[in-house]
């Protein structure tokens, strides 16, 4: 009898210890080499465990439930996996398409949407159960063709916004009524949108174009004004370099009125004045930028690069628009993620099988840990940011 | 005139044949050091993989599995790697990959040695 009681006590204590921590300082690190994720925490900069069996994780991304307990991992092979980061276990998983590229979680946290390359379109799932709620094929050309979908983000009022690579369109999907999704289509936005982002206030959706110069801007507060082309002239008349990797537009790097974006096929970061949407400058950088990420306070912008310069990071001071620091963490710097208040930043160094943590004030490396071909790093603070 | 064209065609064919014989001898990757082969394998999976999928099942670019490439000559694959496909997202790799290396990568792809 006593034995049983101890058993219960032990079980109870275990349960308490297993759950007696918040998740606000936690995150997930993608290991694309092994189809696994590591669960990490930023208070002590340590790894808490690993979850395996997530499939092909090249180009994987993650969004979080609003309680910051569950990570939804979008894999390249169409796998959508819901991971309980407190217990380091998979709680649901579905292979929802042949080939996918990213996802988003709705404003109310009840829907998760995935953008697919093949068959091209968006599928929307119940965030609890991962049951299919809506299937939106990205048909174009009178329904004959299906486009790859990129740049899927959430927007206020239960909307998802995404762009069609092959069709050159932006679609706004309204999921306020699950049974009757509504789609608004914007055509002829420009050739081959490669990625897109939404401003932190959820107002402007901006798609970068691979097939021509400039970016396509949709003001979601004034959708009837349609899509406007911005920065139409950058790169005009200059020879584009071969683009070994598509740049990413994520986490709109904003400092005051200025936004910073990668120039496709050029060794430049473009600066945009967000009041006028005019070009406000170009910063020469070390290579072709991939991620251009602002520290949360907007004081610095960190940039990584495509091959053959992917061993380097440059840091731009947003007041002087000049490069204040260059780091060489190692080959294959794929991603950077700032801790929520920006005092530290995590870098994944793919070819060195390592992630590193830097102090953003001193630029000193403070920690590192082994990881199998690490790529994306995603902290739970994303749960409460529009578009992430 | 026709004779001229024929002889030109003949010459082109000869060049092809010679290049084919030459290329056959480098298929094994003999001219590429072991270290460089390792680098290239990593490049193929990781960097080509960022568009074609880590497992070559396709992404922004098409699948590069042997079944998908079955009817495509190695020469064509090699040329695609070196010069890309203008007007598409497939970049020219000539600045980073030599013709011999491109040939070797093509043979890896055709043999499905990309895992």
How much is the radius of gyration of chain B in Å? 16 Å
Tell me, briefly, the overall form of chain B: globular
CATH-level-4 superfamily name of chain B: Cytochrome c-like domain
The general outline of chain A is globular
Radius of gyration of chain A: 21 Å
Instruction: Quote the beta fraction of chain B.
Output: under 5%
Q: What is the domain tally of chain B?
A: 1
CATH-level-2 architecture of chain B: Orthogonal Bundle
Can you walk through the features of this model?
The complex is a heterodimer of chains A (388) and B (115). Chain A is 5% helix and 49% strand. Chain A is mainly β. Among the domains of chain A are: 96-242, Methylamine Dehydrogenase, Chain H, CATH 2.130.10.10; 246-326, Beta Barrel (Thrombin, subunit H). In chain A, the strands form nine sheets. A four-stranded antiparallel sheet of chain A has the order 3-2-1-34, with no helix packed on it. In chain A, strands 4-5-6-7 form a four-stranded antiparallel sheet, with no helix packed on it. Chain A has a four-stranded antiparallel sheet with strand order 8-9-10-11, with no helix packed on it. In chain A, strand 23 and strand 24 form a beta hairpin. Chain A is globular and about 55 Å long. Chain B has a single domain, classed as Cytochrome c-like domain (Cytochrome Bc1 Complex, Chain D, domain 2, Orthogonal Bundle). With 115 residues, chain B is mainly α.
């Amino acid at each position: 009898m006593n034995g049983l009681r101890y058993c219960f006590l032990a079980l109870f204590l275990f349960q308490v210890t297993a759950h007696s921590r918040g998740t606000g300082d936690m995150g997930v690190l993608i290991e694309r080499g092994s189809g696994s994720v590591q669960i990490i925490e930023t208070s002590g900069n340590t790894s808490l465990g690993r979850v395996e069996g997530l499939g092909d994780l090249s180009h994987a991304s993650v969004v979080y439930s609003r309680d910051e307990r569950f990570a939804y991992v979008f894999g390249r092979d169409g796998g959508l996996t819901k991971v309980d980061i407190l217990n380091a276990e998979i709680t649901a998983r579905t292979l929802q398409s042949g080939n996918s590229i990213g996802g988003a979680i709705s404003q109310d946290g009840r829907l998760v949407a995935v953008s697919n390359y093949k068959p091209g379109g968006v599928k929307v799932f119940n965030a609890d159960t991962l049951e299919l709620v809506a299937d939106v094929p990205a048909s174009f050309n009178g329904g004959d063709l299906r486009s790859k979908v990129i740049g899927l983000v959430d927007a206020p009022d239960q909307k998802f916004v995404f762009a069609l690579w092959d069709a050159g369109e932006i679609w706004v999907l309204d999921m306020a009524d699950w049974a009757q999704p509504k789609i608004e289509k914007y055509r002829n936005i420009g050739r081959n949108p490669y990625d897109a982002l939404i401003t932190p206030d959820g107002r402007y959706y901006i798609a970068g174009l691979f097939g021509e110069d400039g970016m396509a801007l949709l003001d979601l507060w004034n959708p009837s004004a349609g899509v406007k082309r911005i920065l139409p002239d950058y790169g005009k008349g200059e020879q584009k370099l071969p683009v070994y990797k598509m740049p990413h537009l994520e986490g709109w790097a904003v400092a005051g009125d200025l936004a910073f974006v990668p120039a496709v096929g050029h060794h430049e970061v473009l600066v945009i004045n967000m009041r006028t949407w005019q070009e406000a400058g170009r910063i020469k950088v070390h290579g072709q930028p991939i991620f251009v990420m602002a520290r949360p306070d907007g004081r610095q912008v960190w940039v990584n690069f495509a091959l053959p310069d992917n061993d380097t990071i440059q840091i731009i001071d947003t007041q002087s628009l000049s490069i204040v620091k260059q780091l060489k963490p190692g080959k294959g710097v794929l991603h950077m993620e700032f801790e929520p208040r920006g005092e530290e930043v995590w870098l994944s160094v793919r070819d060195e099988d390592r992630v590193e943590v830097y102090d953003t004030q001193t630029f000193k490396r403070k920690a590192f840990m082994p990881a199998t071909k690490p790529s994306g790093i995603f902290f739970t603070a994303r749960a409460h940011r529009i578009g992430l | 005139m026709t004779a001229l064209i024929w002889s030109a065609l003949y010459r082109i064919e000869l060049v092809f044949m010679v290049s084919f014989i030459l290329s056959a001898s480098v298929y094994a990757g003999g001219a590429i050091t072991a270290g460089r082969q390792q680098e290239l394998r990593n490049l193929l999976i990781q960097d080509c993989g960022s568009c074609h999928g880590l497992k070559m099942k396709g992404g922004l670019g098409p699948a590069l599995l042997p079944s998908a490439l079955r009817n495509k000559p190695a020469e064509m694959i090699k040329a695609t790697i070196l010069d890309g496909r203008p007007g598409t997202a497939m970049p020219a790799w000539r600045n980073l990959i030599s013709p011999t290396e491109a040939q070797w990568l093509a043979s890896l792809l055709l043999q499905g040695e990309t895992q």
